[in-house]
Design brief:
6 helices, single chain, about 160 residues, mainly alpha, about 0% strand
């Protein structure tokens, strides 16, 4: 997930320092959200591993469902929060930054906020799979997500025929 932010920053860096500053501001909030989602996913992996170690598949499935439900609900609440109070979030993070940078950061934050539900699902499912002992599939999922992020980000940042 962090690698996706690095790629986005790299791709935007060609547009200028204001754009790069805007992405950096928005990504500071995004990293906080990713850290929370990752912590829940790690907890899910631990509970799934413990449950499967006790041969309790029902408990492992229940833990995965509960984590998934929690993070999807929280992710949609965060999307709503960003839509309603995104300007206040950016002002809190950016302080006295240039208005143009703040406006660009708000646009970027609102757009990336809509990725939170998918990110929540991916992180919990990958955590559950790791807890179940399957480490290859989460690795391939993350590689695929990074490739998809580069492609989609490139199109959104530069356009199709730039």
């Amino acid at each position: 997930m962090v690698l996706m932010g690095v790629f986005s920053t790299f791709l935007v860096s060609w547009l200028g320092k204001e754009s790069m500053a805007a992405v950096g501001l928005a990504d500071s909030f995004n990293m906080l959200i990713i850290a929370f989602f990752t912590a829940v996913a790690l907890g899910t992996a631990v509970v799934v591993a413990f449950s499967l170690g006790q041969r309790n598949r029902k408990q492992a499935r229940a833990a995965t469902r509960q984590s998934m439900s929690l993070l999807v609900l929280v992710s949609f609440l965060l999307v709503l929060l960003i839509e309603l109070a995104g300007e206040a979030i950016i002002n809190l993070i950016a302080g006295s930054a240039d208005q143009h940078v703040k406006a660009s950061a708000l646009v970027f934050l609102r757009q990336t906020g809509w990725s939170y539900p998918a990110m929540a699902i991916a992180l919990v499912e990958c955590g559950a799979l790791r807890g179940a002992g399957n480490t290859k599939l989460p690795m391939f999922i993350n590689i695929g997500m990074n490739i998809l992020n580069i492609l989609i980000s490139s199109v959104l940042i530069y356009g199709i025929f730039s």
